[in-house]
Design brief:
This protein is an alpha+beta fold and 147 residues long. The protein has a single domain, classed as Nuclear Transport Factor 2, Chain: A (Roll), CATH 3.10.450. It has four helices and seven strands; from the N terminus they run ααββαβββββα. Strands 1, 2, 3, 4, 5, 6 and 7 form a seven-stranded mixed beta sheet that branches. A hairpin with a 4-residue loop joins strand 4 and strand 5. It is globular and about 60 Å long. Pfam families: SnoaL_2. It comes from Bionectria ochroleuca. InterPro entries: Fungal_Meroterpenoid_Isomerase (IPR050977), NTF2-like_dom_sf (IPR032710), SnoaL-like (IPR037401). This is SnoaL-like domain-containing protein.
Length: 147
């Protein structure tokens, strides 16, 4: 019983650390808790973003990192992490808000993190975001680079 309690606390800590890494807005930080084989899947699939391995996600995230420096991720106010110790999964409802060079940005996500056996590293991330907000940001970014 103590082992499961400790693993639960470790899973929660890793998930919290992941949010902290997101708030550093660097590729190194965003990749730091991922295993070498970590897969990151973006949903809904209608966004056309798909699944990235660790290196691919670093390149993808690198396109947005600098402009997100004044944004902050946090667990939604009225929500808690859902922790499934047996499957080593943590589900979080996360909000991101702040200003970017393209204007104010606000989005919300459901993240499903699957951790290693010891709960200290992330093996898989499934990210479901507000697709309208994501598309809006991508269009603004494309317009800026086309100008």
């Amino acid at each position: 019983m103590t082992y499961l309690k400790e693993l639960r606390a470790t899973l929660q800590k890793t998930a919290t650390n992941f949010i902290d890494c997101c708030n550093e807005h660097t590729v190194d930080a965003i990749l730091s808790l991922r295993t070498d084989t970590c897969k990151h899947t973006h949903l809904p699939s209608s966004l056309g973003i798909g699944t990235y391995n660790k290196a691919e996600y670093g390149a993808f995230y690198g396109r947005f990192a600098d402009m997100m420096k004044d944004c902050s991720c946090r667990i939604a106010d009225d929500k808690e992490m859902v922790v499934d110790v047996e499957s080593r999964k943590v589900v979080m409802h996360v909000k991101n808000k702040g200003s970017t060079p393209l204007g104010e940005y606000e989005n919300e996500y459901m993240w499903i993190l699957t951790m290693t056996e010891d709960g200290k590293m992330i093996q898989e991330i499934v990210e479901f975001c507000d697709s309208a907000k994501a598309i809006e940001l991508m269009k603004k970014q494309q317009a800026q680079t086309s100008a």
